[in-house]
Each structure stands twice: as structure tokens, then as C-alpha cells.
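forwarding from the other thread:

> can someone predict this with zinc ion?

sure thing
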Amino acid sequence: MKALNSMKALNSMKALDSMKAMTQRSRVTFSSGVAISLATWLMASPAFAHHPLDGKLPSNFFEGFMSGMGHPVIGLDHLAFVIAVGLVAVNRAWGWLVSMVFVVGSMVGTGIHLQALDLPLPEVMISLSVVIVGALVAWGRKVNLLVLGAIAVVAGIFHGYAYGESVVGAEITPLLAYLLGFGLIQAAIALGARAIAQKLSPDQPENLALKLRFMGFAITGFGAAFLASAVLG
Ligand SMILES: [Zn+2]
């Protein structure tokens, strides 16, 4: 009987817990949790080594272009950032420039890698950039565009530095095609994410703010998982 009572108590505690789980805050925690476990799973799988040509150098325009298009998409740390950089300055005049500054920064970053200059801790900096810009998206305040631009260009340099790894030693044609490929795909994804978000806003600004918050939290959780893996492993 005593055991039955404590079972009942446990059950009502569980019921209370699941009611609490309905609150928005838990949903945010949940979405970050999903992002973290997804990221952990992805990092454990071979797909995390995300070079489309499997480490082989691109040898012509087509290979370079496809490899460039593939890297920011297959590399989920990059993809998360590209989406975040598109969402961080939604509904602001000149906000699109933040995305473009990032794209230009990434090309400079590849150039730095090709000059055989070493940047410190690229993986840590890349995951940190995902955490920071994800958090800014979740925060939802208007951050000065020059500050956002500065973050975007530094982040771009580190992401581009990582892209450069795939083309060290490549000929000039596949190399330029690679730059063109990742430049175009990043601009398309960032500006596309921005355009979708802006479409949502005119009639439902609160709806947009909520969606951005969820996206921001998910991206931050994702970045945190990558950061943990970069620091620990
Ligand atoms: Zn990468």
C-alpha cells in the first residue's frame, strides 16, 4: 500500500513535470537539446569530415565549383552560421550587407590559407561564431550594423580559412571555381533565410520574433555542441 502511494505521488510529479514541459522555456530547451544531440550524432558520423571530394583536390572548373557549393552545406557548423548571419539583421535597411560582408570575409579567409598563413584555433573560432551569432538572433535586439559587420567579417575569415583546406595546391581554374561556388551558395542561403523571415513579418511581427528566437536558440545549441567537441576533442 505504501509502495502504491509513493507510485501515485511519483505519477502526479510526472504529470506536473509534463505540464511544466508545455511552457515555452522548456520548448526552447528542448529544441536546443535536439540540436545538441543531432550535432553530437553528426560529429560521430563520417559525414562530419565534410569535404565533398573526399580530400581529393578539384582538378577542373566543375569539380571546384561543386566542391565549393558543397562545403558550406555539408559542413553543418558552416551552414548554421550562414543561416544565422542571414537572420541576424532581418528587417533592417542595409542588413543584407552583413551577409555579404561575411561572404567576402570567407573568400579572404581562403586566401589567407592559400598564403600558408596559420590562423589560431580555427575550429574553436568557427563554433564560437555560431554560438555568438545564434545568440544574437535569439536575443532579437537591434545591434549596431558596424558591430555585426565586424563580427561577420572575422567569422567569414575563419570559415573561409577552413574552406581553404580543400584547395591548397589546386590549379587556378578549380580554385576560382571553388571560391565562386562557396561564395554563391552562402549568399543564396543567407539572403534566402533573410527573405523568408522578412516575408513573415509585415502582418505578424510577434510571430516572427518568436520564430527567430527558436531558430536562434537552436543555432546556439548547435554551436555549443560543436564548440564542446572542438575544445574537448
Ligand atoms: Zn568545413
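The CA atoms of residues 214 and 233 lie 28 Å apart. thats all i got for now
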